[in-house]
From TrEMBL:
Keywords: ATP-binding, DNA damage, DNA repair, DNA-binding, Nucleotide-binding. Residues 692-708 form the DNA mismatch repair proteins mutS family domain. Residues 830-880 are annotated as: Disordered. One of its GO terms (biological process) is mismatch repair. Belongs to the DNA mismatch repair MutS family. This is DNA mismatch repair protein MutS. InterPro entries: DNA_mismatch_repair_MutS, DNA_mismatch_repair_MutS-lik_N, DNA_mismatch_repair_MutS/MSH, DNA_mismatch_repair_MutS_C, DNA_mismatch_repair_MutS_clamp, DNA_mismatch_repair_MutS_core, DNA_mismatch_repair_MutS_N, DNA_mismatch_repair_MutS_sf. The keyword Cell division does not apply. ATP binds at G618, P619, N620, M621, S622, G623, K624, S625. GO terms for molecular function: ATP binding; ATP-dependent DNA damage sensor activity; damaged DNA binding; mismatched DNA binding. This protein is involved in the repair of mismatches in DNA. It is possible that it carries out the mismatch recognition step. This protein has a weak ATPase activity.
Amino acid sequence: MADGIVGEFFDLKQGAEADLLAMQMGDFYEFFGDDAETVGAELDLKVSKRSSGGENYSMAGVPVDDLTPYLKALVERGYRVAVADQFEDGGDIERRVARVVTPGTLVDPTDTDARYLATVVREGDRVGLAFLDVTTGQFRATAVTGPDARERALTELYRFAPTELLPGPELRNDDAFLTRARERVDTTLTLHDAEAFAPGRARHTLREQFGAAAESVGLDDASGADAVATRAAGAALAYVDETGVGVLASVTRIGTYDPDEQVTLDATTQRNLELVETMTGAGQSLLDTVDHTETAAGGRLLKEWLTRPLQRRGELARRQSGVAALAADAMARERLHELLSGASDLERLASRSVSGSADAGALLRVRDTLALLPELDAALDTERLRESPAAGVLESVDREAAADLRETLAEALAEDPPNTVTQGGLLCRGFDDELDELVERHESALEWVETLAEREKRETGLSRLSVDRNKTDGYYVQVGKSQADDVPERYEAIKTLKNSERFVTPELREKEREILRLEEARGELEYELFRELRERVAERADLLQSVGRAVAELDTLASLATHAVRNDWTRPELTDSDDLDVTAGRHPVVEQDVEFVPNDLRMCTDTDDERRFLVVTGPNMSGKSTYMRQSALIVLLAQVGSFVPADRATVGLVDGIYTRVGALDELAQGRSTFMVEMQELSNILHSATEDSLVILDEVGRGTATYDGISIAWAATEYLSSAQSNVASPKVLFATHYHELTGLAEHIDGVENVHVAAEERDGDVTFLRSVVDGATDRSYGIHVAELAGVPDPVVSRAREVLRRLREDEAIDVLGSEREGGETQQVVFDLGTGQFSGGGRRDAPPDGRAATADGGKDDALDPATESVLDELRGTDVNETPPVELLAKVQEWQSRLEEE
Ligand SMILES: Nc1ncnc2c1ncn2[C@@H]1O[C@H](COP(=O)(O)OP(=O)(O)OP(=O)(O)O)[C@@H](O)[C@H]1O
């Protein structure tokens, strides 16, 4: 067992509840054992060995002054790092863990993204969630209830994408929940003291922090849905407090929100619509495309708006009017962008002031950003903007307090302060009398030294004399060798150099002591005064946050206006009806890169002209997915309060947008593509209401054709209210199963549209325009050709297709509701023949039935071997192109025969 210093390290580590411990030893913070190895590997630090108690231990260290960047790097990689500081107590050295820096409590991260710490608790079918960003003081809590509460909680987690997640006691062993949370969110899981989640304790913590404000947002409840939100919020605060990172005071307010006021966007949909990141990681997300914000806080808010569209008409109208007014006033918009580009992140600066990590430069940025307020007012004081919500954004700001704080900072801070806060030069003259006096004395002492050489030359008549200072000798008088013997007696030699001699005088020594004393006193007093100043700023954290948020909102509105103007977007009309009527709609991201062909979309629920469910067909690559995604994005943008990419749009507000599109990356997570597809479909069928918008892209594709068609068919019937007791949302359903276009004839509200293509002399031109009616052509072979599939395969595929078409090999003949049964005609791969109509059941041994009743007993060996292979081929597991190649090969073998 290690003893001494290493033993102390391990003892401290044991009680620290952290992944790593940095322990101060004099001028270094040291890591030992595995911690040293980890830190060495992560940060490229040198690892050495130290022996203790007869054993060798790895050891890595960083200088005390450099700890912060190392800590930050470790924490940003997901580690929780405890810091044990060294204290001197009457000569004894004692070390204790002063703070634990964790991913969710890092105050000064390198990027500007929101960094949420999330807590989640569960009581039966109620789940409470709290999200706290200590870097900005943003704090929200909510509760979701109902049988799907866990699912909805996951949706919220995905929206906030917390960097650290604290599950309450009931969820700690809920592996399914935690696994799913971590699948979607790159988060550090922390098991914090269960006691912090207890209802009484949580209520108490909240009351301590917010007083009556906790009650006013409903977080003082001992029962009901809010009780779980209260527990989550209290635990988050307690955790931040216990880590000791000292930012609690920057959490100045808490807000609750009702997820029902937002548009439900499940995790899959947020990903499928590529709102903030693309599915492949390449290309532009919606956020990348529409983001013209100037400030980090504006960027954060825009992201928040895009991932949390609203159902609240009033708020949406306010945002829309703000965007409209800014869109109409180009001059003011330009001026705003210019001013905002000089604004700093006040929310972050508030937290840094509270935690004590703000330096003089940071406070100068606070001063300069506060100074923008009158200029922003002036920029907004135009005819178009004066009365608009854009100007209204700044109304909530306490101008007087902002001006006071700005003035205090202006009076106190020196321009161009140094980066360190302990060496003076931070504050300006006239701010503090005592400091002024010290500075004056310090400077006059310095001046005395500066003019000393002149005086000495005059007095001694020595011309080769100078006065200087260095680290080892302090201040000295230097005299050239030729004159060194003529110095007066009061000169005391301290060093002989090649060409000169160095001396000090008692007077100079005295002055030097005085200068050092004054330097120290000045540094200390200045640092003290600076800390007081920083505390005054910290006390106004709420003010900085409110100015910061107002500036962010102005930035976000201006960004949306700029994008709308540059791209000819239009202000959508929002209604409470179910209508969705878009003229010349475009995809906001794709339109940036290609000559986009705009398309209309009309969906409504009027009984005489009902179009609730659109079956979208069209060739591969024609633009079906683009059309459907653009429809979803237009609705989403409308419910963000933004303009939309269209000539005209009427958008009936939806309560949720659900999508099911090709799953690209699930295989990596070890789940079958088809399983994922069905889970997602299941979620949609359970969750979508008649006010929702559903986008289904080729549902059923992941399995054998007939299974796929059957599932798609049934899902269509279900969603289109053919089953009367189920709510029917607005649905866009793209499919290659042309059989499904037949549904339009059978079910009210189901209509066909297709993306047109033109075929001339074997060449296909994609027209990209969406027109009413169905199409029965996929041009899949054409796409295969474009993709470089070898010619023989392409031409053989064409031949097979022609035969299939001629013989209507695969046909699904209707699904009349009354007693009608799906009928299939089967192309028998074994014989190359087709079986007749009529319902067929598969033979129990899975063998393909033949048209003549299965008479395959006296077959030649070649046919037998083909049949064997055919039987052994799992259609579900074989990619279509491979199947095609196999068929080709079988056929040629049979032909040879
Ligand atoms: N309206 C449009 N105007 C211009 N280009 C478009 C339009 N719609 C789609 N495109 C282009 O066509 C490409 C293919 O579109 P998309 O992926 O939507 O086709 P798809 O019909 O869904 O294909 P598949 O059936 O093979 O999945 C897109 O990458 C886009 O560049």
